[in-house]
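Researcher: We're reviewing a set of sequences before deciding which ones to prioritize for further study. For each one, I'd like a predicted 3D structure that I can look through quickly. This is L-2,4-diaminobutyric acid acetyltransferase. If possible, include the structure in token form so it fits the rest of the review sheet.
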Amino acid sequence: MLDLNSAYSYLLLTKYYCDTCVVAEADGKIVGFVSAFQPPRQAEVIFVWQVAVDEEFRRRRLGLNMLKHLLAREICSNCRYLELTVNPSNHAAFNLYYQLAHDLKTSCVEEECFPSRLFPGEKHEEEVMLRIGPLI
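Model: Here's the predicted structure for L-2,4-diaminobutyric acid acetyltransferase, in token form for your review sheet.
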């Protein structure tokens, strides 16, 4: 399994947001997944909720290629921005998103999104919003 999120959340994504999700397979096994959606009243934005890559397939640009595949879809043709949140300690995610912005020849802007105090418990880091774009 790629991630520990609820199986129910994946079922919801496949039912309601299949046009903005990407699955990568190798030898009949799911090795990568991007879940994304268009936020209500923001037709120019695609929000990426998750990029997951099987450990065996990391460092092969799979996450980057899945994001590019998503952005090439018809549903994203009018999107000007890709948004997502990431924990400050997730260096791999920051590298991925800044590499995507570089490859797309656009910017990646960081701003505060969800402070850690909003999460239950005391172990969750803040979530930083990254906004990649404008997409051409």
